[in-house]
Amino acid sequence: MKPRVLQLFASGINCDRELRWAFEQAGARVEELHMRELTTRPQALRDCDVFAIPGGFTYGDDLGAGKVLALEVAKYLGDALREHHARGGAILGICNGFQVLVKSGMLPGVDGLPPLSLTWNGSRHFECRWSRMRVEEPLARFMAIGTVIPAVSAHAEGRIVLRHGEADAERLIRAGVVALRYCDGKGRVRADFPHCPSGSAGAIAGLISPDGRVLGFMPHPERSLSRLHLPDRGAGAWGDGSETLSFFRALLAPYASGVRA
Q1: Is 95 a catalytic residue?
Q2: Which one is catalytic: 84, 85, 155, 220?
């Protein structure tokens, strides 16, 4: 049975076609619903395995990146998403979708951890460049620790900020909620620019809930599904083009049999 993905659409989302293609190439059946339609029938979440929020600039990010959509998701879909999660469903947010998950309180989803938010990159402007993400221990159920995933970073407000900076970043790592970190071509964690284009504390690129079913990250692996998408066309410095499709297949694997993990 094909995993079922319900993909959110809202004003300003612009990465929906890439994400849909990635899920379909990984073996999923994808349905896309506008936020307005979902608010009138949130029960649509009962029919999916994965609820996904693609990247973009929802509502122009006029009140901050993902802020308006985060308020809508919390108010109109909060109960339905909690039920979806309780039934064993997964929730994924990429770039603006990750910002929505953080600002709606779904990530990191652990009481007692230091408060965090996403704000302007350290460069103070939009960054669009190739980057790499390293799989950390909390994602080991999906992929081997240390796996390097090439992905395009394209955001202005992707920097994770914490009250006590690196000290709080270490607390998040020890709590097991840091899923992905920026790294270099050899898989070494790098917090310096341009390896970490946002300047995030702890080189954090993505977070995950303790149960592993709410995941969000800033870079866009859905934009690099073959060697032809890579900046060196698969010559080796950026992998062979199979890494990101393997990543999406791994995320869908718990639902491929129709039995939720």
Answers
A1: yes
A2: 220
Q: Is 220 marked active-site?
A: yes
Burial 21-46 (b: 16+ CB within 10 A, else e): ebbeebebebebbebeebeeebebbe
Closest by CA to 28, choosing from 9, 6, 47, is 6
How far lies 95's CA from each of 21, 43, 87, 119, 255, in Å? 17, 25, 25, 12, 23
Q: Which amino acid is at 2?
A: K
Residue 260 has pLDDT above 80, yes or no: no
Question: Active-site residue 222, yes or no?
Answer: yes
Q: What is the pLDDT of residues 224-247, one digit of tens each?
A: 999 999 999 999 999 998 999 999
Handedness of CA 97, 254, 135, 81 (dihedral sign): positive
Checking DSSP bridges between strand 178-182 and strand 127-135, what pairing results, if any? antiparallel
User: Coil, strand, or helix at residue 205?
Assistant: strand
Among the listed residues 72, 127, 222, 243, the single catalytic one is: 222
Tokens of residue 101, six digits: 């998950």
* All domains of the chain in start order, with CATH: 4-255 (3.40.50.880)
Amino acid identity at 51 = F
- Does pTM surpass 0.90? yes
Identity at 39, one-letter amino acid code: T
Dihedral angle sign, alpha carbons of residues 140, 144, 146, 150:
negative
Tokens of 218: 């800033």
The catalytically annotated residue of 95, 127, 155, 243 is 95
158 with 174: CB under 8 angstroms? no
